[in-house]
Amino acid sequence: MAISICLINQKGGCGKSSTCFHLAGAFAAAGHSVLLVDADPQGSLSQGFLGSSFVEALPASQTLAALFVESCRFLNHRQLVRETSIAGISIIPANQHLAEFNVPCPERTRMMQFVLRDLLQQQHEYDVVLVDCPPNLYQCTWNALLATQQVLIPVNPEDFGAQGLRAVHQAIDHARQLNPVLRRLGHLVTRYDRRLLIHRSYEEQLRILYPHLVLQTAIYELNAYKVALACRMPVENYRAKTPAAAAMRELVEEIFLRLAAKEKRRIAG
Fold first, then answer.
1. What is d(CA 214, CA 196) in angstroms, rounded to the nearest whole number?
2. DSSP reduced 3-state for 23
3. What does DSSP assign to residue 70?
4. CATH code of the domain in which 205 resides
5. Is the CA virtual torsion 12, 217, 185, 174 positive or negative?
6. Do residues 182 and 172 touch, judged by C-beta distance below 8 A?
7. In DSSP terms, which residues pair with 129 in a beta bridge?
8. Cα angle at 51 between 49 and 53, to 5 degrees?
9. Burial class (CB in 10 A: 0-12, 13-18, 19+), 138
10. Integer Cα distance of 100 and 103 in angstroms
11. Which residues span the domain enclosing 200?
């Protein structure tokens, strides 16, 4: 059974898209087939793999927006999936066409809440599904919460980065009423600089507030991530022998360990 994870946070710039981008490379390098779903109208994840000009020129019918477009209702939505240049990684892209559908109060749109869930239920050939969400809790994020099994919450260890986490957890609790399998995978500390006292302090505070929900792996602010992205490659594919690539491999390992522990607890009752 595929692992499906959405990455959410209300705060922009906390590393959701970057984590999705590089994490996909680490999963693929470990032998897993990966489907990326870009649910952010900014389309950063799509542009990272396919290029800005190409992504921005895509019609709505060839992006995730097709799920919400009335005229595209009878299209074969499996055709939205595109191969990337990296073996083992496919993507459903997004661009500005998605913005008009990313409305507040998504619960009021009734069946539109489940269009991503319905799409992912058709994708049986992937081992891992990663959904990159916009920096809000509107329609796109809500769809992701109803379509996936796990929530990963990237948070940079600064005041603005940690704000709004209570609302994120409330949204997860709300989504579980419609998606009972949804679970918190945890908080991932991103853009971390251990030399900064403020970063160490916020990390410590986060671990006190959420003692079992903060992953041990932290994603440091390393130049290799940015250079690899500029080359349109996850850091694992750009330069595997770097601390940045090693951190992503550690993150994959910790995710599997956490999922195994959750399954063991579930079986034990």
1. 19
2. helix
3. G
4. 3.40.50.300
5. negative
6. yes
7. 4, 35
8. 155
9. middle
10. 7
11. 3-268
Task: Return the bridge partners of 184, or none.
Answer: 151
- Cα separation, 21 vs 250, whole angstroms: 15
Q: How far apart are CA 74 and CA 94, in angstroms?
A: 19
38: β partners: 132
Question: Using a CB cutoff of 8 Å and minimum separation of 24, what contacts does 248-251 make?
Answer: 248/22, 248/23, 248/25, 248/26, 248/219, 249/26, 249/29, 249/30, 250/217, 251/23, 251/26, 251/188, 251/215, 251/217, 251/219
The domain total for the chain is 1
| CB neighbours of residue 246 within 10 Å | 14
| Predicted TM-score of the model (pTM) | 0.95
Task: List pLDDT tens digits, range 172-226.
Answer: 999 999 999 999 999 999 999 989 999 999 999 999 999 899 999 999 999 999 9
Chain centre distance of CA 211: 22
Strands (E), the chain: 3-7, 34-38, 82-83, 89-92, 128-132, 150-155, 183-192, 214-220
Residue corresponding to tokens 């949204």: 171
Beta strands in 58-148 (DSSP E): 82-83, 89-92, 128-132
Beta bridge partners of residue 160, listed in sequence order? none
List, in order, residues 6 or more apart from 210 with CB less than 8 Å away.
186, 187
**Residue-wise pLDDT tens digits, 145-177:** 999 999 999 999 886 556 679 999 999 999 999
DSSP string, 141-186: HHHHHHH-SEEEEEE-SSHHHHTTHHHHHHHHHHHTTT-TT-EEEE
